[in-house]
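Researcher: Last one for today. Full complex below.
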Amino acid sequence: MIEKALKGNRSYWIWTLFLGALVASGLSAYYQQRWLGLTVTGMGREASWGLYTAQFTFLVGVAASAVMVTLLHQKELTKTVIIALFMAASATLMSILFAVADMGKPDRLLNIIFYTNPRSLVFWDLLFLSGYLATTLTAGWAMLGAEKKGVPPPAWVKSLLNLSIPLAVGIFFATAFLYGGLPDLSLWVTGVLALRFIASAFAAGMALLILVTLIVKKTKGLDTGKEAREKLAMVATYAGVANVLLLGVQFFTTFYGNAPLLWFSLIAGVVSVAILLIPASRKSQQWLVAACTALVLSVWVDKSAGLLIGGELFPAPLGSIVTYAPTSTEMFVVAGIWSFGSLLFTALLKVVVAVKAEHRG
Amino acid sequence: MMNEQRREFIKKTALGVFVGLGAASGLVPAFSLEKTALPVWDEKPVPGKIRWGMLIDTRKCKEGCQQCVAACHHEHNVPAFKNRREEIRWIWKNSYKNVFPTADNAGASKEIQSRTFLSLCNHCADSPCTQICPTGATFKRWDGIVEIDYHRCIGCRFCMPACPYGSLSFNWQDPRTAIVDPVTAYPTREQGVVEKCNFCSDRLIKGLQPACVEVCPEQALVFGDLNDPASDIRVLLESNVTMQRKPELGTKPSVFYII
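Model: Here's the assembly. Have a good evening.
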């Protein structure tokens, strides 16, 4: 089936070459980082986490949120399931790559398996992520293969999908408490963090999925259905409301009110949720695109600048406030990993579109 | 005659082998290749039996004196990066409000607030860094020391924000370029791993006190077994008012301060 990803029109190739070039520049930046050390990034003694961990946190949420499509298990979403699974797989792969890019000794990655520390949430998080990547990718591919042959998917696919549900839940909690369990970072030591993590992940994940299905519809003419998007928008709305509520109440408690980026996140979140709550604007495609984009951006800013960088700086470990600014090398690596994930997702979507077109024709 | 010679040869060889083995294993102290204090190995390590701890009498600590810092950093090949972002430190001096940020500042006199205080790894009994480490590279030893295996560390740095005392340093670049006067008795580290104070576990097995304790001209530092009621440190802890850093977090530090 994969050969279908090798046939495409002009814009398809321009897009893949563009991503390929970004992957190449990311690799070259990463080579520099491997050679010279993480000194080439903007991280340091006090701000020991930066852009990489921020992307990791955001993508982990997006990946795990795709499980909602399996959970809802509704007729309108049948056509969306495979796309959601492939989005989950691509996002999971990217999050693992970001975790590896952040390591000082990535060549020792397997030490996590050789010398397991079962008390460590980092270990569980990476274990769940690897399992989730394997299940979503295999299930999606098997469902697509069955569709190509015009037969129902094999019975084990159902078991895999069921297995992916506890794995996604595990990812949510392991990641949230990974941050919420650090004793001295007062901004994170709150039970709300895990809930906010789940709410923001579903909001951003569903909004991103809506945008992806709209792009597929526009460029490839494959429509997964207006009803499907309405269902996803409903989940995004509920989750978005919960998220702005939880984020909003924190503005009255800790240091949140001092961070301009968090204000942006809150305002963007409120605006997008408002658009989604009004039936007339939710049903209009332009407004839906605007709301989904704002929602994804709101959560991305909250997860990266707010949760991580803000979380690190405001409690001021040992009383010193340190500013963190990513370097260009770091940004190239970030762009490279995002492009690699997008390239994989594009290729998988191409196969989906080709198989569905064949089936119809 | 032949047999006589052969017997003599075998006897001498056996003696030589015995002495050699003995020397290597430290059984014949006079010839031992590596000086090891025998009492250290008298019994099998029992987890929790010993808990090493340190008491810092900050009244004796002289302002401006850096001898303990210099001795420790020299002994352990700690690189001297000037840049604050990449600085690596095992023991250092810091202001009162940075070392005890959660202590009652209102009660501290101007004199106390103007002094600097030693900070180092607290070798916590309930250590967040060892709990978060995914590979067990940062681990707790049977004697309470929190140690790092530089060959197992994957450089994920989760231990750094996990530590409430900022005790861990990461090698953002190759540290070997910044070691001023390297020693061979302790290994250097590679780029990409974390490091911190090891309570001189490398000196303890030789029966020596930690470098900072030994070098302090004011004898402001006392090192000993917190589980032994007869130890100097326990006697001092019982007869003085002491404090720990951020005790409210429940990490149970093994480093105590007399202010």
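Chain A has one domain: 2-360. The two ends of chain A are 17 Å apart (CA to CA).
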